[in-house]
């Protein structure tokens, strides 16, 4: 084999040969023995189709590639031909063809990107269900709720070929389909709409191969010269305006369908500014999913086992839940004794064919809360959640029932998939023209989007504490955040120049989620960046600050979440004022970043980039007058407690960090500011929002007055100049 020309190269050749041998692929290497190909490029060449032919070889190669990447010997990502290449997507356009992925499919998280240990085994069913950390120690009851195929069922299979259960015709893809990344981030660009075209707006988003995307931001210099700033992003996939909904489905949801028969709770959601195409993207997905699920359910083994599909559709509007399939009946969310969220009164319907599902979806859509925003006349003002649940029934007597927690009587949950059409994100600046109600809606929407992001972040860091109590949305999705879960995030963007800022915000949000799913900031990195002053604060808490990176990281995260919650609960700007004099020993940039972080959290997900920087930046900067809500000194705790809302006053102030790490008490909990079971929710939140909006309105009015006064003065001065120049 040819390899490097020096000793290092030879050594690498030997290592590579051993690697291939260890994976039983030495015969592939021998094909290149006389070609002069650099050995280090070999796995990538093979992955691009130059050698590995059988699916087994590809799988082995893929695993080998992952190991190589972990070892850091080859800093590239593996390319695995996906379904999209082989079937769904025309390779002729080059969009998904291996040749056009460039080097090694940069940025492609792909379906093989996760470690084997994260995957559910393919019909290996003896593995106990991974319990939530919030579950009581004894989980047998919980496990029984997630009844799946057992070994007897396996034996009952005619030829023990479990791949026949999967919806695809191609058995080769079964392994890949089970090999689904835990979080996948896909971006979809919509075409310019009529209004944008009428305004002659430019399309400023270009999509390249290798899941790359560039935003060409039009800008002006101080001397008013125009220039374009380029922003490049790379995601797991980027789909342009020519991609159909069908292709969208194949890229996002199709691979996770088989996993919901294996105890997985999957979530697919669309995120993006209002009018960017979330509803357009999300609405067809459940229909396609049902088609595939029903096809699997028709397999004799599932029929015999009593597997059935149930559908429910509800919306979260503000903090209220409404059943979209039951005349917008108000729903109530409760936790049962095992901390499982039940939506009391939610109607579930058994569905067995696509046509019925279509009717249900149309019915639900017509009942959904919509309103008009600047960007979308028919804007979704709520989060709509359509859930498809696969249950195992011993004997089904009803086709319609209440989800009142009596699941064991009516079937045991095997797995589920939730489709969430999120309400559109809005910037505060866009809401000034909105009426009061729309602005209240906007505040609630941004809050829940932020909470969702926090959960994804925690989920992807495999953290023990998932802050799902941050909003109703995340509470409802609680079981999508624990145990075996898969998440697909579809970021929808508008290509118009007028939406540039929104588009960048959306992409930064997505980028952040993506970078986390690739192990972005390691805990070690973060822990090493924790400034001493923050450690001091943490040390002042009941938890000691450990030298252990993981623990420090967890503590820092918990501290941030707890503090964030306090801001949200108070919905007050009290905390954001005046820390003009940061401690001398405190690096200024960290203080600035701390402020950015809080602005990011209080300002909604659009400012998430700042938040990321706050964590990752380690540099110091110029000292500047600062305002920061948080003082990274020993009195930070008191500051935080000072603004606790009335209903939390009775709590032990020293528990702010400790609580979030403790398992919840059975059936009720007051940690993290949540309500106790069967207690009414705290009433103050909406009032605070209203107060803030009033204040904001007054502030805007005051600004307008000042601007008008200034304009008046300018007019008078220029008039005076004109007259004086005329006189002279
Ligand atoms: N990929 C696309 N191709 C063609 N038309 C699209 C595409 N995406 C969106 N549209 C059109 O753009 C308009 C707005 O889309 P949609 O209602 O899905 O936005 P949205 O993000 O759900 O907005 P909101 O958050 O306000 O509900 C619709 O008329 C829709 O048909």
Automatic annotation (TrEMBL):
Q: Does the keyword Ribonucleoprotein belong to this entry?
A: no
Q: Where is this region: Disordered?
A: 73-92, 640-684
Keyword check for Transcription regulation: no
Q: Which residues form the Kinesin motor domain?
A: 182-516
State the InterPro entries in the record: Kinesin-like_fam, Kinesin_motor_CS, Kinesin_motor_dom, Kinesin_motor_dom_sf, P-loop_NTPase
Could you mention a single GO BP entry for this protein? microtubule depolymerization
| Pfam families recorded | Kinesin (PF00225)
Residue ranges under compositional bias (Polar residues)?
79-89, 653-675
Keywords linked to the UniProt accession: ATP-binding, Cytoplasm, Cytoskeleton, Microtubule, Motor protein, Nucleotide-binding
What GO molecular function annotations does the UniProt record carry, in alphabetical order?
Answer: ATP binding; microtubule binding; microtubule motor activity
Question: Where does the UniProt annotation locate this protein?
Answer: Cytoplasm, Cytoskeleton
Specify which residues bind ATP according to the UniProt entry for this protein.
272-279
Q: Which GO terms describe its cellular component?
A: microtubule
Main localization, broad class: cytoplasm
The entry sums up its family as follows: Belongs to the TRAFAC class myosin-kinesin ATPase superfamily. Kinesin family. KIN-13 subfamily.
Q: What is this protein called?
A: Kinesin-like protein
């Amino acid at each position: 084999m040819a390899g490097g020309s020096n000793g290092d190269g030879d050594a690498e050749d030997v290592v590579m040969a051993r690697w291939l041998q260890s994976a039983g692929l030495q015969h592939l290497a021998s094909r290149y023995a006389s070609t002069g190909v650099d050995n280090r490029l070999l796995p990538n060449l093979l992955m691009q189709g130059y050698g590995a032919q059988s699916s087994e070889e590809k799988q082995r190669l893929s695993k080998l590639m992952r190991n190589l990447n972990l070892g850091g010997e080859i800093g590239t990502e593996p390319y695995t031909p996906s379904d999209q290449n082989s079937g769904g997507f025309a390779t002729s356009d080059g969009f998904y063809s291996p040749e056009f992925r460039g080097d090694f499919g940069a940025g492609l998280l792909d379906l093989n990107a996760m470690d084997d240990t994260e995957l559910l085994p393919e019909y290996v069913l003896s593995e106990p269900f991974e319990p939530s950390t919030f579950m009581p120690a004894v989980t047998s009851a919980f496990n029984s709720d997630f009844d799946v195929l057992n070994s007897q069922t396996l034996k009952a299979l005619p030829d023990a070929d479990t791949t026949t259960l999967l919806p695809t015709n191609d058995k080769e893809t079964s392994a890949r389909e089970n090999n689904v990344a835990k979080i996948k981030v896909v971006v979809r660009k919509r075409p310019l709409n009529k209004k944008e075209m009428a305004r002659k707006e430019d399309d400023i988003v270009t999509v390249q191969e290798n899941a790359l995307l560039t935003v060409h931001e039009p800008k002006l210099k101080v001397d008013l010269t125009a220039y374009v700033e380029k922003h490049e992003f790379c995601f797991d996939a980027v789909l342009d305006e020519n991609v159909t909904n069908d292709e969208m489905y194949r890229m996002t949801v199709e691979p996770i369908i088989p996993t919901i028969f294996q105890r997985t709770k999957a979530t697919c959601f669309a995120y993006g500014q209002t009018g960017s195409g979330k509803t357009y993207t999300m609405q067809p997905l459940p229909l396609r999913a049902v088609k595939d699920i029903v096809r699997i359910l028709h397999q004799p083994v599932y029929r015999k086992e009593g597997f059935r599909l149930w559908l429910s559709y509800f919306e979260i509007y503000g903090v209220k839940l409404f059943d979209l399939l039951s005349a917008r009946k108000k729903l109530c969310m409760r936790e049962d004794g095992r901390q499982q969220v039940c939506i009391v009164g939610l109607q579930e319907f058994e569905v067995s064919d696509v046509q019925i599902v279509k009717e249900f979806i149309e019915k639900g859509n017509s009942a959904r809360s919509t309103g008009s925003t600047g960007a979308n006349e028919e804007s979704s003002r709520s989060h709509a959640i359509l859930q498809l649940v696969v249950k195992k029934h011993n004997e089904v007597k009803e086709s319609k029932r209440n989800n009142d927690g009596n699941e064991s009587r009516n079937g045991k949950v095997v797995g589920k998939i939730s489709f969430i059409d999120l309400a559109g994100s809005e910037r505060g600046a866009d809401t000034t023209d909105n009426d009061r109600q729309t602005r209240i809606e906007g505040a609630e929407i941004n809050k829940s989007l932020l909470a969702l992001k926090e959960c994804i972040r925690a989920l992807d860091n495999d953290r023990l504490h998932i802050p799902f109590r941050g909003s109703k949305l995340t509470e409802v999705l609680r079981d999508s955040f624990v145990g075996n879960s898969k998440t697909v995030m579809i970021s929808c963007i508008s290509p118009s120049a007028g939406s540039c800022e929104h588009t960048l915000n959306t992409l930064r949000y997505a980028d952040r989620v993506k970078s986390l799913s690739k192990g972005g900031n390691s805990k070690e990195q973060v822990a090493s960046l924790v400034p001493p002053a923050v450690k001091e604060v943490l040390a002042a808490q009941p938890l000691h600050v450990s030298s252990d990176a993981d623990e420090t990281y967890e503590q820092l995260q918990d501290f941030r979440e707890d503090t964030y919650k306090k801001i949200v609960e108070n919905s007050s700007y009290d905390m954001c004022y005046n820390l003009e004099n940061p401690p001398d020993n405190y690096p200024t940039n960290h203080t600035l970043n701390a402020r950015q972080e809080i602005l990011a959290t209080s300002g909604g997900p659009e400012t998430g980039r700042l938040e990321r920087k706050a964590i990752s930046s380690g540099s110091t900067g110029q000292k500047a007058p600062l305002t920061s809500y948080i003082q990274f000194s020993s009195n930070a705790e008191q500051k935080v407690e000072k603004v606790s809302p009335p209903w939390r006053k009775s709590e032990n102030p020293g528990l702010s960090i400790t609580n979030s790490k403790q398992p919840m008490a059975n059936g009720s909990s007051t940690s993290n500011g949540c309500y106790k079971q069967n207690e009414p929710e705290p009433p103050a939140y909406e009032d605070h929002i209203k107060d803030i909006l009033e204040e904001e309105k007054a502030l805007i009015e005051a600004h307008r007055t000042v601007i008008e006064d200034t304009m008046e003065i300018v007019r008078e001065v220029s008039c005076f100049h004109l007259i004086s120049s005329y006189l002279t």
